[in-house]
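seq/struct pair 1
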Amino acid sequence: MKFIKIILCLLVTTSCVTKPPTIAHTHVGHILEGFAKTPNKEGLLAIAKSKASLASNAAQKAVESKSLLDIKKHTLSAMQAVNPAYQIKDPKAIKKSPYGLKKALAEAVQHIQYAASSADASNNVKHFAETFKQNSRYVLDRCDIVMGLGDEILRSSTNNEAKVLAREFLKYSLANAVGIDINGDGHVGPSPKELGLAQLNAHIKAMLARERPVYHEIGKWYLFNIVKLPSGQWIFKQRDNDDY
């Protein structure tokens, strides 16, 4: 009898482990855990956070630089962390360019929308998706401001002009990474205009803490082998490179 109970327990455990994740959770997994098309198959939000940090660090170096040449060098590094396709003209080359902050966050927004529109999405995910999209918009808009300021710095002809612009460049770059206290109350948020990648990441994790069924780490096979049918339905199957 004891042996039978052990076997039954193992069967139950095995069935739990091998049960496929929900489609909604798999798309969230692309944001947090891994995505087939990113370098090293990293999660989209992890890339966005890393690139935002690189951009703000480079912007800080630009502010601290003494020479116009160095200001421009670090400015360009920050800009390419936001958008590696900067100054690339060939549309095919742009499509193949590495992920920067803007591209990674934009695709994270896309995948939370995929999650929310899935038949198995919880109300929790559905309600969160629109909020995440709206909050991310401020970071994406800031990316455009950073790129515009960067262009002006690269066109600067004097050290003083470049330094003035570099301080604004740093302000917006830091805001993308860690948020910004616009109203001076000592806190970042809850206003969406104050949010950066640090807050967006915290918000999605807080959403998952409320999720039912509970979100579990997604197996790599499921993360990298989900395809969209012509009908719009998502299914799990061995994926070709162009299935997204």
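seq/struct pair 2
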Amino acid sequence: MSGSADHTARIWDTSTDKPLQTLSGHTLGVTSVSFSPDGRLVLTSSIDGDARIWSVKTGLTVQRLKFHVSTVSQAAFSSDGRWVMTAGPTTAAIWQVRTGRLLYFLNGAHGNLTAAGWSPNSMRIVAGDTGGGVETFTCTLCAHLPALVAQAKARLAGLR
């Protein structure tokens, strides 16, 4: 997998060193690329302010994630493949992969968020900012249904 200043990303056959798919659609250079955990999707980010989720099989855009005002410096799938995080230039955003819906965004306390990553359980986010800071966030929406139900019951019990 590679991203390029020519506005494309490529999926490579490592045995022949030839591209299997060329992903075209960004209008400026590609800044990051990654496979989903199951290998069926590719995530790209770009200087054009977009992140895109692509089908490996067809090479077509499945979701266009448009929120950032300029360069999306990084994008990453959560370890369970249900969520995507995009970072840059001023904030990080959490997206639902299935719908492409923006769930919420995170702001850095010390500067613009330009890099972000997921914890192995997809519940915590680590983000780096231009001020040299590193911040962590909890993604309460990112839990599986049983964990969300338990969290809701605990909150309801606290209201009584």
